[in-house]
Prior knowledge:
By secondary structure, this protein is of the alpha/beta class. The protein folds into 2 domains: 8-15 and 257-349, Alpha-Beta Complex (Aspartate Aminotransferase, domain 1); 20-253, Aspartate Aminotransferase, domain 2 (3-Layer(aba) Sandwich). It is 42% helix and 15% strand. The chain has helices at residues 20-28, 40-53, 64-75, 89-92, 97-102, 119-125, 155-167, 179-186, 190-194, 220-232, 241-253, 258-273, 300-307, 332-349, and strands spanning 8-9, 57-61, 81-85, 106-109, 136-142, 172-175, 199-203, 214-218, 289-293, 312-313, 315-318, 321-325. The strands form 3 sheets. A 7-stranded mixed sheet has the order 2-8-7-6-5-3-4, with helices on both faces. A 3-stranded antiparallel sheet has the order 9-12-11, with helices on one face. A two-stranded parallel ribbon has the order 1-10. Helix 7 links the parallel strand 5 (136-142) and strand 6 (172-175). Helix 2 packs across helix 11. The two termini are 24 Å apart.
Amino acid sequence: MPLTDKTLDYRGDWAALPTPAMRKAMAAAELGNDMSAEDPTVNRLEARVAEMLGKEGAMFVPSGTMGNLIGIMALAPWGTEMLVGDQSHIFGAEQGGAAALAGHPARPLPTDRFGAIDPAYIAAAINPDDQHYARTGLLCLENTHNVRGGTAIPAARIEVAAAVARAAGIPVHLDGSRLWHAAVALETPLADLAAPCDTVQVCLSKGLAAPVGSMLAGPRDVIAAARRHRKMLGGAMRQAGVLAAAGLVALDEILPRLGEDHVRASRLAKGIAELPGLGVDLETVQTNLVYVDLPPGLSGSTLDERLRPHGVFIGAHEPQRIRFALHYQIDDAGIERTLEAMRQIMAEVT
């Protein structure tokens, strides 16, 4: 079934299309050469996001994956090992770029049910000053945590993890692609969630509905170094204000209503949890993501195929696990339509 304006696309919050206000702003954006810091729209976006995150500077990049990679490159000396969560996006879904392109092998650490890393694991994983071992050069954290269900990790838990690294002289990078959602769910300022970390990447297209772009924020000297890495990776752009304009609108138009996605995600999760054979960890449904464990004999790809005639598209992340990612284009009626489709299908297969 092709995508239409009636489709409920849960495959990712990146599926949300730009709003009419974003399209209008993109068409009217004041432009210049961003590579020379001459694009006024990009400059406004960078200044605004830096202030929101409590950092000295910020830089616009094409994607969250590039933002994370540049953050790693700007913070960690070449050849040093980075500590990452074993279920993190950086470790499992970014093509091993930090190792392949930046010379940083990853040491995965156990991630708890809610996406946090026990500080004891971090302390134990920091290599001694011995020529046999790679120096530990970076700790990477994630908030919200995608694979654990979109869990919002409180600032205190980020702080205790980061403190272990700081005590050893190790910088910290935060993959905050959906940090906006964490701030809303926890009722905590973005700057407080970002404060324990040297750099933070936030995404404008996941959940905020901008068509393209992420931001990397951090100390002024680190962002200056990051601009050189961005150029080397092919991420420096010219009249990027066309894209940044949508990001500015997203901060005004979409960010204030993210809580609606959380309410709808909770309703969807509770409705699915009532269906025989399906498993939902309701405690981890804290923001806009809902993960569902499927019974034996029903694969994610099969369920996806059966939902599509109902106009519902889902993400089959593992053979027996699916994800619903909510965004502004999924309304209350869409939730009810999705639940009705799930009821019909589960009645047929169980």
